[in-house]
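Structure in, sequence out. Go:
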């Protein structure tokens, strides 16, 4: 097995094709309810909006193999950033099947969340996880989030199905 190093960096325009590829994989994005671009035109518009949108902060997760090959495998960040109340919603998406269930979401998310509390003035980071997304719930709890409640029929899927989601929160004093 090839060993690798992880790194995280701010999203760049060259990353858009990867995001489009991940967005079009419905298995990977089944529980990802934020809007992602599915074609080049949408991708360019999405990137332009994300660069000026002060309510989001997006990063790419990269793997560098021992041989030096470097490629993106996922994304993470914050959206619904609320400067007034010092809080934001956390998300992570591992977009490469080879790297699922390897602890990458935990390692990269833990570092990002710690930095949010250290270098920013966030009071709270929260995550909304589908009621039937057990891996997402385990990740939130492993990161130190506490289940605070349930959001009944919080979102409606394109087919009209309402989805209950669990609300997890992590405050600065918890960290």
């Amino acid at each position: 097995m090839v060993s690798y190093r992880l790194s995280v960096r701010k999203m760049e325009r060259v990353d858009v094709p990867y995001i489009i590829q991940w967005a079009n994989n419905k298995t990977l994005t089944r529980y990802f309810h934020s809007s992602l671009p599915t074609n080049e035109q949408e991708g360019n518009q999405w990137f332009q909006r994300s660069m000026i949108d002060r309510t989001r902060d997006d990063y790419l997760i990269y793997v560098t193999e021992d041989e030096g090959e470097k490629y993106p495998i996922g994304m993470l960040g914050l959206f619904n950033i609320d400067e007034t109340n010092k809080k934001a919603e956390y998300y992570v998406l591992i977009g490469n099947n080879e790297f699922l269930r390897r602890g990458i979401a935990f390692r990269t998310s833990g570092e990002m969340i710690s930095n949010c509390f250290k270098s920013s003035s966030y009071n709270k980071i929260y995550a909304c996880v589908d009621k039937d997304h057990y891996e997402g719930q385990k990740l939130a709890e492993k990161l130190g989030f506490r289940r605070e409640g349930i959001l009944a029929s919080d979102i409606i899927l394109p087919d009209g199905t309402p989805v209950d989601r669990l609300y997890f929160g992590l405050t600065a004093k918890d960290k």
